[in-house]
Amino acid sequence: MLVSPAAGRGRALAATGTVLDVLRAAGLTPRVLAATTRAAAEAQAAAAVGAGTAAVVAIGGDGAAHAALQAVAGTGTPLAVVPAGTGNDLALALGVPVDPRAAAEAAAADLRAGEVRTVDAGRTGQRWWATVLCCGFDSAVTDRANRLRWPRGSRRYDVAILAELARLRPRELTLVLDGELRTVAVTLVAVGNTAWYGGGMRVCPAADPADGVFDVTVVGPVSRRELVRTRPRLTAGTHVEHPAVTVHRARRVELVGEGLTTYADGEPVAPLPAVSVCMPGALSVVGTGR
Ligand SMILES: Nc1ncnc2c1ncn2[C@@H]1O[C@H](COP(=O)(O)OP(=O)(O)OP(=O)(O)O)[C@@H](O)[C@H]1O
């Protein structure tokens, strides 16, 4: 079990005892990996997979799942997600119960029954990701929020959004979608394996993690006012009807541009240029589809 200590302001730590109880009651023998950094979490999870663990359970938000994913993707070892973070977009997309106890029970039931489902995963360079890879306005906001020492918590994002809105301008980006090249001015590009990012924003509304292909949402140049006005439509996914938005489908997405980086699952993934490939069925999961 990987526990993201900072997740959900301590919600993951608080849920750990419950998850242990549920797994033990199901006859399983869980072990908590004592990692305090993401790198250590990834290394310990990889060692556990190498040693033949039956599953990796990630307790936390999308960052916890992202760390576990680096160890399990492509191995057949299943991942169980127990949502306890600020953003739980992978759990949402996979139909994992919202309540940590129910999520642990669902995972335990599937492990006991040998019920494992496979979904696709994204791979960019050496990194795996599961939800949405973004580049442009959103990655710049995350990048800036990560560099801010103050304020703490989600208020950092409010400050970062305002700062990035103030310097909003379309960025020239070359997109190569399955070999088809286009150079466009964009506000943001979201490459979706699943639909949601940023804690419940349905940026790639039709993305299906079992179809072997990414859904790519491209937001062209928009004014500050329009961006602020359209953003609430992300919750329902109706932003794709906006004339500045186009949606594409591709297995291989190459992004080329100056001074931009990519984030996926809320974590930094790679600076541009970056190639992302949809790896069909690379991720085995339990406790989903509820
Ligand atoms: N086992 C771990 N040990 C230490 N840090 C971890 C671990 N797992 C994940 N992290 C890091 O902790 C941060 C927060 O984790 P997570 O995303 O799970 O929670 P969250 O509440 O959704 O966080 P946030 O919304 O602030 O990103 C992430 O940046 C992640 O890389």
Assign an overall shape.
Answer: globular
Q: How much β-strand is present in the residues?
A: 25-35%
Give the termini separation: 21 Å
Find the structural class using helix and strand composition.
alpha+beta
Query: What's the story with the biggest beta sheet?
Result: 9 strands, mixed
Q: Could you list the spans in which at least 5 consecutive residues all have pLDDT below 50?
A: none
Count structural domains.
Answer: 2
How big is the Rg?
A: 19 Å
| Number of strand elements | 15
What's the tally of helices?
A: 8
- Give the % helix: 25-40%
Identify every distinct bound molecule in the structure, by name, code or SMILES. adenosine-5'-triphosphate
Protein name: Diacylglycerol kinase
Pfam families: DAGK_cat (PF00781), YegS_C (PF19279)
GO molecular function: ATP binding; ATP-dependent diacylglycerol kinase activity
Family: Belongs to the diacylglycerol/lipid kinase family.
Detail the topology: elements first, then pairings.
Elements: E1 2-3, H1 11-25, H2 38-50, E2 56-60, H3 62-72, E3 79-83, H4 89-94, H5 100-113, E4 117-124, E5 127-129, E6 132-136, H6 137-147, H7 155-166, E7 171-177, E8 180-186, E9 188-192, E10 214-219, H8 224-230, E11 245-250, E12 252-256, E13 261-264, E14 267-271, E15 274-286
Parallel strand pairs: 1-2, 2-3, 3-15
Antiparallel strand pairs: 4-5, 4-15, 6-9, 6-13, 7-8, 7-12, 9-10, 10-11, 12-15, 13-14
Helix pairs in contact: 1-5, 2-3, 6-7
Adenosine-5'-triphosphate binds at residues 2-8, 35-38, 41, 60-64, 67, 85-87, 266-267.
Keywords: ATP-binding, Kinase, Lipid biosynthesis, Lipid metabolism, Nucleotide-binding, Phospholipid biosynthesis, Phospholipid metabolism, Transferase
Cofactor: Mg(2+)
Protein name: Diacylglycerol kinase
